[in-house]
Task: structure prediction
Amino acid sequence: MKAIVVMDEAAGTAGMVLAERPRPEAAGNDVLVEVHASGFTPGELAWPSTWTDRLGRDRTPSIPGHELAGVVSALGYGTRGLSVGQRVFGLTDWTRDGTLAEYAAVEARNLAPLPADVDFTVGASLPISGLTAWQGLFEHGDVQAGQSVLVHGAAGAVGSMVTQLACEAGAYVIGTGRAADRRTALDFGAREFVDLENDTLEDAGAVDLVFDVIGGDIGNRSAGLVRAGGTLVTIAGPPGARPADGRAIDFVVEADRVQLKEIVQRVRDGRLRTVIGTVATLDDAVAAFNPAERATGKTIVRVRP
Result:
């Protein structure tokens, strides 16, 4: 099968190549998915799990990508809950070969049914962004109606999901980002917007919850905006500063079938929109992941027409 593979961690996305790889087998409790569309997060090339297995052994050449939408083509021994020919989408295990390929072996529990009225391209754009937003807001942030939420990168793949879900939960959302992102963030439901290049972050005032996707100086300064009893939630690694009288939580997103069903239902009924930028074929994926200028929206690889 055709797949995108990586061998050199230092090379980043420039080290990605299209190659022939053996078609994976579906182990016990796995399904083999015929991949129709795949999502990719460039940051995963810095994750140890991209290069080594759970025991720390080298596993290159690795196939990156952990989001997919496709059709179940085979079931592993003992696999239940899904059937051959079923449309699915989901998030694959970090330490196994991923989804930038014509086929991927995935634990069945990591997948959810993809309704027929949701395109494979949309399905592949949802797992990481949608689950990250859901888990950060509801599991770790315990967001409540009437609270104020500061969302960094509010026009981005994750931030836009956070903004929409927080608004639906009844929160007052303040988005941040570049000046060019203001209109997009407001369109997704943010009530205010802080231009991190030209405005003063601290002018946003005290908030109940900060959802940080940036880290560094912005993440550290954000801790000072969390009011007593509030929460700083981050996916940018352990925070360098903590709220004076609140919680600081960093987390790694996990696959969850029930949450995926909640997310895709919101897409179906128009409550949730995803940010898709470039849609490339598998043959053109390497170039798409090395754009000549800053990309807008999530890049999706359409593996099959």
User: Anything to note?
Assistant: The two ends are 16 Å apart (CA to CA). The CA atoms of residues 105 and 195 lie 42 Å apart. The helical segments are 120-125, 127-140, 157-168, 182-187, 216-223, 257-268, 285-288.
